[in-house]
Amino acid sequence: MVVTAGSGGASGEIWFGLAGIGAELAAEGVLFAADVDWGGASNPLLAALPEKLRYDLSADREAASLVALMHSELAAARCGSGSVINRLGEVMVVRLLRAQIEAGSTEPGLLSGLSDARLSRAIVAIHGNPGRNWRNDDLAEVAGLSLSRFAETFASVVGETPAAYLRRWRLLVARQDLQNGDRVDAVARRYGYQSAEGFARAFRQHYGQNPLAMRGSRVGHPVPEPVPS
Q1: Domain for residue 227, yes or no?
Q2: 25 CB-contact burial (10 Å; exposed 0-12 / middle 13-18 / buried 19+)
Q3: In Å, how far are 12, 87, 126, 130, 215 from 194, measured between CA atoms?
Q4: 194 in a domain, yes or no?
Q5: Is the Cβ–Cβ distance between 212 and 181 less than 8 Å?
Q6: Contacts of 182 (CB under 8 A, 6+ apart)
Q7: Cβ distance 1 to 30 under 8 Å?
Q8: How many domains are there within the chain?
Q9: Model pLDDT for residues 98-142, shown as the tens digit of each residue
Q10: Alpha-carbon distance 17 to 20, whole Å?
Q11: 148-196: pLDDT as tens digits
Q12: Domain with 213 in it
């Protein structure tokens, strides 16, 4: 939600949080509001943000420009505006995350990991190539730490082991690909699973749903898997 600053109509703050945030505001004080999905609580990036966050745009001209562009797209309702607004919204969430990372965090979790210059290199490597067969010693080398020091630090700062985080991230991006209509076997191979069956078991265990049921849900209806000839 973007709220205005004073009577001039300039964007003043971003309010980010759970459903109902900003309910106390008068309607005329809200420039625009939007729901953020990104996999919801299953996305460690989105879950890393506080439940309630107020971000001052007066100190960030680039973020204020993003908000102005989003508002312009909403007001004009031109062809392709929905896609443009979605991408700009993703950029805005990334900026919010960066601001939180720079502020640091004392609680175990992804923000703490990304705030650590060594661990952040390993986390970014996982995000950049989730299908790679990452071993702890590979990630320790990326982080510039000994194997034992890396494993211990990652678990204490992020709150889970590197293998558990890799597993969770793979399933998140796999879910997004399935929602976009990608085939189950292709997604399984893309994210390092030896078979579609093994991927389906891991997916059901994590999400409580068969990956076939998830396929194509983002475009409004499931896309059937092709029948082998």
Answers
A1: no
A2: middle
A3: 50, 33, 18, 14, 20
A4: yes
A5: no
A6: 190, 215
A7: yes
A8: 3
A9: 777 777 655 678 888 888 889 999 999 999 999 999 999 999 999
A10: 8
A11: 999 999 999 999 999 999 999 999 999 989 988 999 999 999 999 999 9
A12: 164-219
| Tokens encoding 84 | 């443009």
Q: Is the pLDDT of residue 200 over 80?
A: yes
CA distances from 41 to 146, 169, 207 (A): 32, 12, 12
Calpha distance 65→56 (Å, rounded): 13
Query: Contact, 161 vs 154, CB < 8 A?
Result: yes
DSSP state of 75: H
Q: Are residues 15 and 36 in the same domain?
A: yes
Q: What is the model's pTM?
A: 0.68
Interhelix angle 162-179/136-143, nearest 10 degrees: 100
Torsions phi, psi for 131 (to 5 deg): -80, -10
